[in-house]
Amino acid sequence: MEFSAADFERLLMFEHSRKASEAQYINDPLDSDNLLKWGGALLELSQFQSIPDAKLMLNDAISKLEEALTLNPGKHQALWFLGNAHTSYAFLVPDVDEAKLHLDKATEYYQRAENEDPGNEIYLKALEVAAKAPELHMEFTKGMAQQALVGGGGPSPSSNSGKKKKKNNDFTYDVCGWIILAFGIVAWVGMAKSSGPPPPAR
Question: Is the pTM value of this prediction over 0.70?
Fold first, then answer.
């Protein structure tokens, strides 16, 4: 997987954030904001990993975010991140039943986030997207299966298998990247709105 310069900068930024959060955790393991930041960094970093490594990183993110919730059960941002982590994980598994478990958890976390911060547009949008996620997952897995069929059969299966695998991985990363990007944009817009406009000049 090749990275653009912007992707590489994001990778470095989130890796720095992950390391800083890890160091902060040693000093203060009860800092729920730090755990939120750590879980968020792991969620972002998972986009740059192979599927098995992304799953491990997402599980680690889920663990950190759940720990933040044990310290601060009303932390709606942690609930929202947990919804994103489970959504991302669902799109990494081809099994519909396993994916449905993660998508159901995601919806539950988004609903809890919205309950904690009623009317939050980000959480409402996340719930709207989550309602469509099972259908998107089915289309995604069908697309992966069709790509595997179309890519199969040729003069030399051994020479094509490397290209086919790379093409499938690229497709997987593209879809997962778009999903995470959509959630990221929604998050960014929400954070911009929550911080409000700058104070008027005097």
Answer: yes
Burial class (CB in 10 A: 0-12, 13-18, 19+), 2: exposed
Tokens of 121: 């547009």
Residues 27-78 have pLDDT tens digits of 999 999 999 999 999 999 999 999 999 999 999 999 999 999 999 999 999 9
CB atoms within 10 A of CB 161: 13
Check: CB of residue 172 under 8 Å from CB of residue 144.
yes
Cβ(51)–Cβ(67) below 8 Å = no
**CA distance linking residue 134 with residue 99, whole number of Å:** 8
**Among 30, 50, 126, 118, CA closest to 85:** 126
Instruction: Output the CA torsion sign for 17, 83, 35, 185.
Output: positive
Asked if 31 contacts 200 with a C-beta cutoff of 8 angstroms, the reply is no
Instruction: Report d(CA 54, CA 79) in Å as an integer.
Output: 20
